[in-house]
Amino acid sequence: LKMSWFWFYLPLHLLVVACLCHSIKAPTTSSQKSFKTDLFNFYHSLILADGKETTVHLLKDIPKRYYFVLEEGKALAPFTVTVTPCDVPIEWSILVHKASAICFLPAGDHDTQDVSRSQKASSMVSTIFNYKGNSVETYMGMSSHSALYMLEFLSTERDTHITVYLTTDTTSGHLYPELPMDPRIDVIGIGYTTVTLTWKHSPSVLQHRENIQYCLLVNEKHNYKSLCAAETAIRSSGMKLPPALALSLSPYLLEPQQVMILSNSELSIINRASSGEVRQICIGTKNTYTVPNLRPSIQYYFDIFVVNLLTNASAAYTGTFAKTLDEPEPKVAELKDGKVVQVVLDGKKQKSYSLQYQAKHKRIQFTFQLCHGQVRVHIAKNGKTVASENISGLRYFSLKGKLLDMYLVQVKSTEETNSSVKVQVSPHFHKPLFPLLPESLKIKSFSKLRTCNSVTIAWLGTQEESKYCVYKKKIEEDQLWNELQNADRCSGPEARHKSEKVLCKYFYDINLQRAVTTETIKGLDAGTLYLFDVYLFGPSGIPVRYHSKVVKTRKKC
């Protein structure tokens, strides 16, 4: 068999391994044919780069081979191979060929002893390591220039990809950050919406703090053994990675404390996939963290990765899981016809409140007046939702049903701060608790009518004669935001200082187009900021507060 074509496939530094003669026929015994097949398999694999992480794509049931040797002139030297499966379990092996100088002798020029040597050399291919699974696995061994190593990878489940890292340089540090002797994650606190985790520091963090950080992966499905595996799972769930993250999760792109969520279209706060939410939180170098914004009664899986910011290589701690506490059943209070109930919610401790009402009439009306904060109202009749929306100002819900229908009203705070709302239910024909409202509760001011000591304001009225009271208050510019945010929109004039009262007046107009009134407030200070409020009183005497208006008098006139 002519072997001249074979020289093309041999790197120069491997020519010392097999002394193949250019124009001489090879032996034809079965053992020598097997040896030639081994050589063919070795040299038709790919060269594995030293000191670089290589991504390998595997097709189902088709093995893929890589090989490496030491640089010429090196004696015994240590080497490590790290393989990271990025999806399904794989099989991989390391084989070594220890025949250092093998020559095919010319036909007719070899004796029995030569054939025996060739057979012995052929049998010196051995497997030194074998693994099957989806964990990150590292092999450490000793190599020499007289040995040729082959790595063989096989996926039997489906097409997949892995990363492989080979290094023969053990003096220049590690590509992968080191894990502590005990790589477990401890759960030290569980709440309704939080879980607190702690873990032992990586030696790499203590040595190279500026180049290393911890990243936490949270999901509702299972633990991941590498960032590579997490990325693959996110892709397979149908989520689209942002362009900057198309090749890897790239935690080094994040600022400390920043939350990166992979959503169906772009970076967002939380992603809700079919398998639950997935989020990655990079937290710098601290080794205790409280995961916020979880949901009650849900089991979450937590994985900590220590990441080298310079190389993007990572090592995984042993993942853990925890179930958040069950949310306590909300208190249920009874609503009675015509009675006003004020619900106060603590945005942190108690975020919801339930009210129950059994209908004594076919038509009923729920009234909600938002006093402070932000709330969402959910109304169910006999277990079926009939209304659900965020409340702003005053809101009526007129509902039709049957006698003895059971209504459940749930009021939920939508923010961390305290919220409050007034709730009333009454028969539809009942005398309304609140006055008839105009189309808008805004107060308008006229800039051209402003002077150094007066301003002119206007507001809309209704077709029903009602009482309107105007109040004013001096305010500093740095107090303006707090004053508007913390105002109790349910409180009436009784909560105001007497000196703040300007006037009270009655008016109405059958023609809504003309149901508007103006008032000029005099005796003000020049160049001063004032807060104006108008209160509308209905037949029941319960006031409705217009939206506050801030006006500044002129400095010079």
TrEMBL record:
Keywords from the UniProt entry: Glycoprotein, Neurogenesis, Repeat, Secreted, Signal
Transmembrane residue ranges: none
Any one GO biological process: nervous system development
GO CC, any one term: extracellular region
Chief localisation class: secreted
Extent of the signal sequence: 1-21
GO molecular function, one term: heparin binding
Compartment annotation: Secreted
Fibronectin type-III domain mapped to chain residues: 177-314, 435-543
Superkingdom classification of source: Eukaryota
PANTHER family the UniProt entry points to: NEURON-DERIVED NEUROTROPHIC FACTOR (PTHR14619), PROTEIN NDNF (PTHR14619:SF9)
Function as written in the Swiss-Prot or TrEMBL entry: Secretory protein that plays a role in various cellular processes. Acts as a chemorepellent acting on gonadotropin-releasing hormone (GnRH) expressing neurons regulating their migration to the hypothalamus. Also promotes neuron migration, growth and survival as well as neurite outgrowth and is involved in the development of the olfactory system. May also act through the regulation of growth factors activity and downstream signaling. Also regulates extracellular matrix assembly and cell adhesiveness.
Name of this chain's protein: Protein NDNF
Native source organism of the sequence: Pedionomus torquatus (Plains-wanderer)
Lineage, broadest ranks: Eukaryota, Metazoa, Chordata, Craniata, Vertebrata
